[in-house]
Structures are given as structure tokens and as C-alpha cells.
Design a protein that fits this description.
With 361 residues, the chain is α/β, with parallel strands linked by helices. It has twelve helices and 14 strands. The strands form four sheets. It has a six-stranded parallel beta sheet with strand order 2-1-3-4-5-11, sandwiched between helices. It has a four-stranded parallel beta sheet with strand order 7-6-8-9, sandwiched between helices. The termini are far apart.
Length: 361
């Protein structure tokens, strides 16, 4: 609990600290801001008064003054999602290492809430704002996000898009992506190489950029091998476990013919696995199953899940580093664009058609 000020009227102020230390309010600001030299004796007096009054500086006032702990804003739809949590961990670790405070906002997809948080970060002169997760790539999205990027740039901040659709060339934004479509292509190619020709795709929302990329990889892999795809084997949903469970149950109820399942995320794969087991089917004995993301529990499923490894934590770290290192001798374009690789992790959930199962090598 903060102590009452010297007059007993509420929270201690910088003037109370100045009066207790016998110096000016400007001198207190210099000591707390650490940006101007003061004598050791004066510094000791001020810090003693701060302790005695339990004074806490107003973060908003410090931001306006351009002093205090620099901050980063990290915005995502759902912090409970395992992949988002991994990225948040990377952001927080790197921000801490570089001496920045990380403020997290989970929006549940509310665009107004997102914009409100970004405006707060801009007013507080945050060093950068990192937006995470796929979105709907429309002219409205590009226009709105470009305005956000311009506003942050004018305030000396930087907008970083992680896994979100890029903006038009020249926008003051850093885009950091992973090879979403390439990972899906490699994963589907692996399943096809085991002899599967009817692969059920449990995708995400059709308008979602991440879901679109993974479906494109699925389709491109089929075309590369000359395998025709059946539109009935592409089911939309979202990226959750419950969506995978519902979609798999629906596929089984309507009698879809497939020998393998490619889930858009590991969470979707986990729900599909439960539905298959409830139907008395084994993986990979009856049906092969793969996911995407390689979140920690993927290796602990039974059987361990073949999936695509996405470096989510490194994405978070890279987002912080690139934003904070701009202007420190790096010659980079205003619309910096970085791409991280993905790779298939082969485990025990894919069987060879007519020949048992394909185990990890």
C-alpha cells in the first residue's frame, strides 16, 4: 500500500519528495530519470526521501518525459493458444534481456480493442508494437494497419507484424513470417510419399491468411505429384482442439473415404485423434494423422505426432531484436521483411499404405 503524502492527503507526489529531500522537483526528476548528472549527496537525499514516502513515479508522466523503463507492446488474439504462448515467451525473454518492459494485450479478435491498446502504446512512446497471428487480408486491413504503422512511426515507434499479412510496399513496418505454405507442402508431400492418395484436410477459417497458406501447401503438394484432390475432403473450421474433434466426427458420420488426415494445427490433430479413437479406429493402423506447429505436447500424444516445426519462440525474439536494433547501424529498408524456415518432424503417426507404418528415422 502506498503511504499518505506529508500532508496526509493521498498518494505521495514528486513535490512531496522534493520537500522531504530539500531539493527542487526538477532535481528529483533528474535523479529518478538518470539522464542528468547530480552529486552523490543529492542522489542519496532524494532516494532516501523516495523510500520514506514510498513514492511511485507515474508511468504516463515518465513516458511523456521520455524516461523510465522503455516498453514494448505485444498484441495477440488468444494468449491461451500454445503457439501464441511460445511466441509471447520469446518476446518477453528478449525484451527483458534488452532492458525493456513487455506489455501483453489479448484481444479475442476485437479490432477496436486492438486499436485502443496500440494508441495507448503510441501515447506512452513504446519502442515497438508487435502484432501476432494471421488475419483477413483485405484492402480495409491494409489501409487500417498502414495508418497504425504511420502513427507509430511518427511517434518514434515501430510496428512489427508476425505471421500477419504484409502491407503495401513502402509502409514503415517490419514483417516477420515463417514459411507457412512451404511447411504444409513438405508435410503433405511426406504423407503422399507413403502411398496415401485421399488425404482429409481439416483446415481453419477460409478467409484467414494462415489457414489459406496451409491449404495452398496441401493443394500444391498434390499437384506436384499429379494427384487430383477431392473438394469434399477439405473441411473448414478453426485452429482449436474442439474444431478438430467436430470436423472428424462429421467426416466419419457422412462416410468420407480417406486414408490419412492432415490437420491445420496440432490442436486440431489432437481433437481428430480423440474422435478417431471413439470410432474404434487406430492411428496409424487404420488412418494416418499429421498436424502443424510442433507444440510441446505433440511428441507426447500416442502415437507421437508427425508435424511441422515452426520456430515460434525465435519468431518472438527476432521481432523484438529487429524492432529495437533499427537505427543502430543497420542499413535496412523502411518495409523490412524477414522469413524463417519450417521443417517436417517425422514421428510415428503416418503409416505406409499397405505396409504398416512409417516410423521416425
Amino acid at each position: 500500500m502506498t503511504r499518505k503524502n506529508v500532508d496526509g492527503g493521498g498518494r505521495s507526489t514528486i513535490r512531496d519528495v522534493a520537500a522531504r529531500a530539500g531539493v527542487s522537483a526538477a532535481t528529483v526528476s533528474r535523479v529518478l530519470g538518470g539522464v542528468y548528472p547530480v552529486s552523490a549527496a543529492t542522489r542519496t537525499q532524494v532516494l532516501r526521501a523516495v523510500r520514506e514516502l514510498d513514492y511511485v513515479a507515474d508511468a504516463r508522466a515518465k513516458a511523456i518525459a521520455g524516461v523510465g523503463t522503455p516498453t514494448l507492446g505485444f498484441v495477440l488474439d488468444d494468449i491461451t493458444g500454445p503457439s501464441f504462448a511460445l511466441m509471447a515467451h520469446g518476446v518477453e525473454r528478449e525484451a527483458t534481456r534488452l532492458g525493456h518492459l513487455c506489455l501483453v494485450c489479448s484481444t479475442d479478435g476485437d479490432a477496436a480493442h486492438e486499436l485502443e491498446f496500440i494508441e495507448t502504446m503510441r501515447a506512452q512512446r513504446a519502442a515497438a508494437v508487435i502484432l501476432v497471428g494471421g488475419g483477413v487480408d483485405t484492402p480495409e486491413y491494409r489501409s487500417r494497419t498502414a495508418r497504425v504503422a504511420d502513427g507509430l512511426a511518427a511517434a518514434g515507434s515501430r510496428l512489427v507484424l508476425c505471421g500477419r499479412p504484409p502491407l503495401d510496399p513502402g509502409a514503415p513496418v517490419t514483417v516477420i513470417e515463417y514459411d507457412n505454405e512451404g511447411g504444409a507442402y513438405a508435410l503433405c508431400s511426406h504423407v503422399l510419399s507413403q502411398g496415401h492418395r485421399r488425404i482429409l484436410f481439416l483446415g481453419g477459417m477460409p478467409e484467414h491468411s494462415t489457414a489459406q497458406g496451409r491449404e495452398r501447401g496441401y493443394l500444391t503438394a498434390h499437384r506436384a505429384r499429379g494427384v487430383e484432390t477431392d473438394p469434399a475432403l477439405r473441411l473448414a473450421g478453426d485452429f482449436t482442439r474442439d474444431s478438430g474433434y467436430r470436423s472428424m466426427r462429421r467426416a466419419l458420420q457422412v462416410g468420407l473415404d480417406f486414408t490419412a488426415v492432415m490437420a491445420a494445427t496440432d490442436m486440431v490433430a489432437a481433437g481428430a485423434l480423440t474422435a478417431l479413437r471413439e470410432a474404434g479406429m487406430s492411428v496409424p493402423g487404420d488412418v494416418s494423422l499429421v498436424g502443424y506447429d510442433d507444440i510441446p505436447f505433440a511428441r507426447d500424444l500416442y502415437p507421437p505426432l508427425t508435424t511441422v516445426r515452426v520456430p515460434y519462440e525465435e519468431l518472438g525474439r527476432l521481432a523484438v531484436r529487429t524492432a529495437l536494433e533499427r537505427g543502430r547501424g543497420r542499413d535496412v529498408p523502411p518495409d523490412e521483411h524477414l522469413l524463417l524456415g519450417t521443417h517436417v518432424v517425422v514421428r510415428e503417426s503416418v503409416g505406409v499404405v499397405g505396409g504398416g507404418f512409417a516410423s521416425a528415422g
